Amino acid sequence: MPELAEVERARSFLHTHLASKRITSITAPDDAILYVSPTSAATFKDALENRIIRNVERYGKYFWFEMEAQEESEGLCVLMHLGMTGWPHLRNTKTHYYSHRDATSTDVWPPKFWKFTLTTDDGTEMAFCDPRRLGRVRLIHAQDPMSHEPLSRLGFDPVICMPPFSLFSQKVLARRVPIKALLLDQAFSAGVGNWVADEVLYQAGIHPEQYANTLDERQLERLWEWTRKVPVTAVEVGGDSDSFPSDWLFKHRWSKGNSKRKKRTAKTKSGPLSEGEDGEHGAGGGVQAGYMPSGERIAFITVGGRTSAVVPSRQKLTGSSGIDKIPKEETRKCGTKRKKVTQESEEEEEDEEKPVKEVPEGVRRSGRLRKVVKREDSLSPPPSDLD
Q1: Model pTM score
Q2: End-to-end CA distance of the chain
Q3: What is the chain's Cα-based Rg?
Q4: Which of 217, 298, 362, 377 is buried most deeply by CB count within 10 Å?
Q5: Percent of the chain residues past pLDDT 90, beyond the cut
Q6: Strand order through the sheet with 306-310
């Protein structure tokens, strides 16, 4: 799914090709899923036709058209979210970070799965496409959309407004949740998605299951550093993964393979691994796990409902897990084994933006063990359509 860097790429292209241009026509079929009430296809079309797009802005995974005001006190923005597979196409212009997804934009117009199209006064054509129909569009009648939901419920954007270390560490230590789940909470860090969170934690050397309130000073410093550095680096190369640093986990996490794929040979300090040989800490051959170029195994676990890539030799659980010991009979009820996965779907349901529930001391997170959940007072839960 498009994360912060990819959405910034889309914003940049749209600003370059649409800013300061007048919309002369819009085609917008009825779609009760795409348009968030009270916005409808009809109100969307009526509000935008013959209006000038002044700027294209972004915050987190949202981007919007800031329309030129017709009256001094008027404000109008078109707020959009790409969901899992949405993307804005420009006719005869490659905009996507995956080149094959731009193919239909030049061969057939409008492209497949289009939801609305618009044309500007100089002939520029744009189409919003969304195969899985998880994208969202709404009108915000305000001069400052950041003061209105859903933007007002978002946390800091690591590229736009990364908080100072003191405030960042204070917010992290106040939460009793796995650090991976906290990073995915859009009310904490807007725009951070699954692969960005995994990359941040890998570079910081922190296990995704480590509880936020147990991080020490050094871990907090590295977490703060990489929470900004990963998104900024990705934005600087336009979200193009081919240009990501070669030592990033992202470059190797997809190569774990499975029984239907060709087995990958990994290298260790003593030389390459054979197809049946075990890598460090795990099953060998790359069948159930990929390997970093150093030979370190990449394992896959579920944290916060999402598949998480982790390098066990580098990312270790340290100190307390944030959970006190509980009676054996309760342990048997809740089950303490972590769920292992051998396949990672690139199209998992985007649930990282659901509110993160905190675990009181002495209670283990589990689907079976009933527990009292303490809601974080300082961060409002994000709305359900933040997906």
Answers
A1: 0.77
A2: 10
A3: 23
A4: 298
A5: 59
A6: 290-291, 297-303, 306-310
